[in-house]
Amino acid sequence: MTAVCNPDAIIQRINQIQATLPPAVRLVAVTKKLPTEALRAAYAAGIRDFGESRVQEAIAKQADLADLKDITWHMIGRLQANKARKALEHFQWIHSVDSLKLAERLNQISEELGCRPHCCLQVKMVPDPPKSGFELEELWAELPALAQLTHLKLVGLMTIPPQGTAPEAARAIFCQARDLAEQISQSQQLQIKSLSMGMSGDYQIAIASGSTMVRLGTILFGPRPD
After folding, report:
1. 3-class DSSP state for residue 203?
2. Residue 226 covered by a domain
3. Domain presence at residue 1
4. Is 80 exceeded by the pLDDT of residue 225?
5. Is residue 213 part of a domain?
6. Which of 38, 65, 93, 103 could cross-link 74 (Cys pair, CB 3.0–4.6 Å)?
7. Residues 36-89: tens digit of each pLDDT
8. What's the farthest any 2 CA atoms get from each other in the chain?
């Protein structure tokens, strides 16, 4: 199925959503499977943060949008270790650092490339077998090792409630993540200033619970192509 792009509709939806967001909340437009025309429409509406889930897809779009110099690219999908180098070459943010092993790999390559990307640790606040991410006990145990990775800016947490989570349960998960960020910062091992929480169906709850970055796709662009 080919994506249908209506630039005027995209711009209108983005303007409506942006008008409701607090100034401190960063809007990352999730553009996986969308044509570059949709990204250009979002850019025209003021979007400068774009989130992609697949490295190769992002690289192709970045080539098509090379004339737009001030875009920040966010890797929001699961990152395989063999794609780490390409990801670091093409993304300024990695939201899905889901293990110490991946973090160490990213740190090593960042040193080689001379870059220092912003990273979020993906955390599972409640059991959720289909998703990757740090379990809470695991995260606390590995924090000292993570704090030694000086070629990464480990400044955030990212969490996604299990599919089908009711609004009040989602609120509790987001609040727990906010509290976890505060506890980690108080431990002085890492300073967690960013909370990547909230998608099209729950971003308002996430913002009320302390999110500083929301990852919105469908609500901005409409249904995705298959």
Report:
1. helix
2. no
3. no
4. no
5. yes
6. 93
7. 999 999 999 999 999 999 999 999 999 999 999 999 999 999 999 999 999 999
8. 49
What per-residue confidence (pLDDT) applies to 2?
A: 42
- What are the helix (H) ranges across 91-163? 100-113, 136-147
| Alpha carbons within 13 A on the beta-carbon side of 139 | 24
Q: How many domains does the chain have?
A: 1
Q: Torsions phi, psi of 4, nearest 5?
A: -95, 125
Its domain, for residue 47, covers: 7-221
- Mean pLDDT of all residues in 152-163: 97
> If you count them, how many residues does the chain have?
226
Provide the mean pLDDT of the chain. Answer: 96
Neighbours of 96 (CB within 10 A): 24
69 CB-contact burial (10 Å; exposed 0-12 / middle 13-18 / buried 19+) = exposed
Helix (H, G, I), strand (E, B) or coil at 184: helix
Q: Using the predicted structure, report yes or no on whether residue 226 has a pLDDT greater than 70.
A: no
If we measure between CA atoms, which residue out of 148, 119, 118 comes closest to residue 134?
119
Asked if the structure places residue 2 within a domain, the reply is no
CATH number of the domain where residue 185 is located:
3.20.20.10
Q: What is the DSSP string of 28-96?
A: EEE-TT--HHHHHHHHHTT--EEEES-HHHHHHHHHHTTT-TT-EEEE-S---GGGHHHHHHH-SEEEE
Residues 6+ apart with CB under 8 A from 198: 174, 204, 205, 206, 207, 211, 214, 215, 216
Question: How far is Cα 219 from Cα 223, in angstroms, rounded to an integer?
Answer: 8
- Cα(80)–Cα(73) distance, integer angstroms: 17
